[in-house]
Amino acid sequence: MKRVYVYGEEARYRNYRLAVEAAGGRVEFGLSDTSDAEALLLPGGGDLEPWRYGQENQASRGLEPDRDAAELSLLARFTADGRPVLGICRGFQTINVFFGGTLCQDAPNHKAAENGDRCHLAFPACADVPKNSPAVLAWKALSGFPVVNSAHHQTIDRLGAGLCLLQSAPDGVPEAFAHRTLPVWGVQWHPERMRNRSRPFFQAFLGLSKLV
To answer: Which in 69, 132, 174, 195 has the greatest CB count within 10 A?
Structure first.
């Protein structure tokens, strides 16, 4: 059973824990030593501090500076070790910033709808996925999601170095990517809220091996 680390308090991320458990993994919180964690999951939440991607604050809110610092540090450790990483919503954006990308601070058409998540079509967005790479597995895992759910007001602007765009919304907003050489995946939408459909996606992520 793969051990997946999430920074933060368990009560806040129950949906993520349930989704990982349904796929056969185990989520652990609050570890003082993450060296034995086999994978990292970066969940949703507030906005990143804009200075981290070279901008002044124009529309960012719910800032969590301590969390920014902690998750970026975790990303540095896990990617250096070649351990798998999955970013969801805010986590997707955090990965992008870690690799030098930027964010659009407000995209109102992607906010949550009145009755919950906003659902929209998702289109394949890349034709040059590197063969025999973790990105190929992400590409296949995303094939079952022609419709995705959005509840965010920030989006990716410039894609980070080494990231391969795999899926986009009808308006071109990036919805999923994978790193071209590292076992790093990210989605802007919320698979943890669609557990009946997304189990194969989480299983595919849990099946990623550490790159030595």
So the answer is: 174
Q: Residues 174-200: what's their mean pLDDT?
A: 92
28 catalytically annotated: no
Is residue 104 part of the annotated active site? The answer reads no
Query: 192 an active-site residue?
Result: yes
Rounded Cα–Cα distance for residues 125 and 135 (Å) = 13
CB 183 within 8 A of CB 85: yes
Catalytic residue among 89, 153, 175, 179: 89
How many CB atoms sit inside 10 A of residue 118's CB? 17
Query: Three-state SS for 124?
Result: strand
CA distance 110 to 143: 21
Alpha-carbon span 129 to 87, nearest angstrom: 19
- Its pTM stands at 0.94
Beta strands in the chain (DSSP E): 3-6, 26-29, 39-42, 85-88, 103-104, 118-121, 123-124, 147-150, 155-156, 163-168, 174-179, 184-187
Catalytic residue among 38, 71, 175, 192: 192
Cα(132)–Cα(197) distance, rounded to whole angstroms?
A: 26
Find the mean pLDDT for residues 118-147. 81
Q: Which of 30, 75, 29, 27 is nearest to 48 (CA)?
A: 75
Chain position carrying tokens 């698979």: 191
